[in-house]
Design a protein that fits this description.
By secondary structure, this protein is of the alpha/beta class. The protein is 48% helix and 13% strand. It folds into three domains: 5-133, Response regulator (Rossmann fold); 142-314, Rossmann fold, CATH 3.40.50.300; 317-453, Helicase, Ruva Protein, domain 3 (Orthogonal Bundle). Helix 4 (87-95) links the parallel strand 4 (77-82) and strand 5 (100-103). 30% of the residues are buried.
């Protein structure tokens, strides 16, 4: 169990000793300072979890110590103490960031309760920051696989728009292309990164429930509304709202979302008071919204509001340079998850995967890698491990595989050469790493590369 440290600052030695004795019984590590100057000296080299600080001190005042402590670490938890009921000073202390204020003489039980509550708050904050850092690393732009120019251009634009605080983004692309991944990457690289991102799948929630989920409701708004419910939009305040598959939203709801975008207000179901929120909107769709507006299925004014920065994510069949790097990325992931030791692909398997059209895009590719690695144990993915629809890409009529006559079909040596070059490109021409992925001895790889030059 973690031991929390507390810095006690008071010019009365008896008070210091009494507080030290009481708090040490609770398992806390105690450091004492009899003046503001001494407290600041300690803070130069040490960060306690909490400061219990007297307001009235000789020399540097308690308020000055509070101010400087917050400059050192704005998350520092400080509880003020005073034997004097000076309301304006207490208000000033709270404005400067004090967690709470105790009026002497106070009961030790009251002190212990406030300290415990403050440290629990700090623990929750630390856990949040830890989770936030994990999420930020997970959705780091540099971790999104993009060897193709098309995908690199999308990520470059996304990274630039992420820096703006309010700009609405419309992500367009087929199912499985990674729209939610990109939406979260934009959020976690934006000024709103430490605030929530709330994802709403407009296609997954029935229309009659979506409105109450988005806006919330007041008690008595309908038969089962026994108490007020806070909606998802309200929970996202100061953060980002991600509307996935917004093309499936009903026209009546579209009008209400338009109001949220235009003036940041909405009303709970059964309510009369407008609620003001400050959110960034990122929307995604696999539909052609221009065509849907022409057909009357999507509001034109909402489309223009959403389409401030449109980002079109290309399907996997249009970014074939990313297929092998993605396979290797997922291979690393599932090696860890299901305790396998796959290192690469056989040339025929690689060529079949490159030829396949991947209608399910990156999601289908990931599922394929997971399926193969779950069913087989080997160093490389072999052609026979792949599903039939992918295997047949090496035995389809020539017009499906290659437009040239059969006599010009590549030999296995040429397929191997193409695959090795792809792996070398993925590893940045790191031949040792490429050899590991290919399942070759480094000397064998060097010989093959040399043979191409001869």
């Amino acid at each position: 169990m973690k031991t929390f440290s507390i810095l006690l600052v008071d010019d009365e030695i008896l008070t210091l000793n009494n507080l030290k004795k009481a708090l040490e019984k609770e398992g806390y590590e105690i450091i004492m300072a009899e003046s503001g100057e001494r407290a600041l000296k300690i803070l130069e080299n040490y960060r306690p979890h909490l400061i219990l600080l007297d307001l009235v001190l000789p020399g540097i005042s308690g308020l000055e110590v509070l101010k400087k402590a917050k400059e050192i670490d704005r998350e520092m938890i400080v509880i003020m103490m005073s034997a004097y009921e000076i309301l304006e000073k207490a208000v000033e202390a709270m404005k400067l960031g004090a967690y709470d204020y105790l009026l002497k003489p106070f009961k030790l039980s009251e002190l212990k309760t406030i300290v415990q509550r403050a440290l629990e708050t700090m623990s929750l904050r630390l856990r949040f920051l830890d989770e936030f850092e994990k999420e930020k690393q997970r959705y780091y732009f540099g971790k999104i696989i993009a060897q193709s120019k098309k995908m690199k251009d999308v990520l470059d634009m996304a990274a630039r728009v992420a820096q703006s605080d309010k700009t609405t983004v419309l992500l367009q692309g087929e199912s499985g292309t990674g729209k939610e991944l990109l939406a979260r990457a934009i959020h976690y690289h934006s000024p709103r990164a430490e605030k929530p991102i709330v994802a709403i799948n407009c296609a997954a929630i029935p229309e009659n429930l979506l409105e109450s989920e988005l806006f919330g409701y007041e008690a008595g708004a309908f038969t089962d509304a026994r108490k007020r419910k806070i909606g998802l939009l309200e929970k996202a305040d100061e953060g980002t709202v991600f509307f996935d598959e917004i093309g499936d939203m009903s026209l009546s709801l579209q009008a209400k979302i338009l109001r949220v975008i235009e003036d940041g207000t909405f009303t709970r179901l059964g309510g009369s008071q407008p609620i003001k929120i400050n959110v960034r909107i990122i929307a995604a769709t696999n539909q052609d919204l221009v065509r849907e507006t022409e057909k009357g299925n999507f509001r034109q004014d909402l489309f223009y509001r959403l389409n401030v920065v449109p980002l079109k994510i290309p399907p996997l069949r249009e970014r074939k340079e990313d297929i092998i790097p993605l396979v290797l990325f997922f291979m690393d992931e599932f090696n860890r998850e299901i305790k396998r030791n796959f290192k690469g692909l056989e040339p025929e398997a690689a060529q079949a995967m490159l030829n396949y059209s991947w209608p399910g895009n990156v999601r289908e590719l990931r599922n394929t890698v997971e399926r193969v690695m779950s069913l087989y144990q080997a160093e490389n993915i072999h052609l026979q491990f792949l599903p039939q629809e992918i295997r047949q890409e090496l035995s389809l009529p020539e017009e499906k595989i290659l437009p040239s006559p059969a006599k010009d079909w590549p030999t296995l040596d040429n397929l191997e050469k193409t695959y090795i070059k792809k792996v070398l490109e993925y590893t940045g021409n790191n031949k040792s790493r490429a050899a590991r992925i290919l399942g070759l001895h480094p000397a064998t790889l060097f010989r093959k590369i040399k043979s191409w030059k001869d």
